[in-house]
Amino acid sequence: MKIGLALGSGSARGWAHIGVIQALEELGIRPDVVCGTSVGALVGAACASGHLERLEARLRALTRLNTATYFTIGVTGGGLVNREKLHALFEECVADPDAAIEDLPVKYAAVATDMETGGEYWLRKGSVLQAVWASISLPGLFPPVHYHDRWLFDGGLVNPVPVSVCRALGADLVIAVNLNGELVGRHNAAKRRREREKEREKEKEREGEGDFVERIAATIRQHGLLPEWPTRPSMFGTVACAIDIVQDRITRSRMAGDPPDAVLTPRLTHIGLLEFYKTEEAIEEGRACVERMRPVIDALFSHSPS
Prior knowledge:
This protein is of the alpha/beta class. The chain is 45% helix and 15% strand. It has helices at 16-26, 39-49, 52-60, 64-68, 83-93, 128-136, 163-168, 189-206, 212-222, 235-257, 279-292, 294-302, and strands at residues 3-7, 33-37, 71-76, 79-81, 107-114, 120-123, 145-147, 150-154, 173-177, 262-264. The strands form 2 sheets. Strands 1, 2, 5, 6, 7, 8, 9 and 10 form an 8-stranded mixed beta sheet that branches. Strands 3-4 form a two-stranded antiparallel ribbon. A hairpin with a 2-residue loop joins strand 7 and strand 8 (150-154). Helix 1 packs across helix 11 and helix 2 (39-49) packs antiparallel against helix 6 (128-136).
């Protein structure tokens, strides 16, 4: 029985894939087929190349400050990413510069989107690193990649969790990792937190605490004399929300038509699109997700032929 691992898109939340892979290996589950979209293609390539530990070590060293050095100040060449610095990271921690997909010890494929047709394009041969670049090239952050005689960008726009690709590459049993399952509506979480904080402030004011001016302002607001205007979402927050919604809807549709045998959905609503420095949180949640799904995983393999 061949085991397939479908690693979904999700930008910075993708480091959870590392924890998932490690936890599954500790259970004796090693994939024969690894397919990834976007950041899933990146982590999947490191796994298939045997570089996962190297990648993890480098990612754990990221801080908020040095993460910023991977981005440029102005938009150049169609993206905000420092391509040279990121390429050096990929060559060191994802795959060797001359590594070919067909030479990897496990079957691997990355999913990209064809700019001309709007369809998905499966990268199953050729340069590993070029396949990763094509799959992760989210419009606005990365420029599109010209590869295999076509312009390609982020595969999350067409197939966020590539279950179908795993099946096509011969997987009999597919475990999917969906990073987008709990994200829709998360951009309202900050608003809800602010509302809770206001309630706590009101309680303090009723107890006689707080500054005299603050108590007067609260009283005015309480009687509707000073309206509270809603905070407009930021431009980037709006874009991030749109990406989350699109990927969530496409994922639901694709997995309904071609369901995996098990779905792992890490709880990652607290990690933003570009918060790549939250490596430890993401990896630990990936591990925790496998543990939560342990009964399902055990039942799946106990009923599957060897």
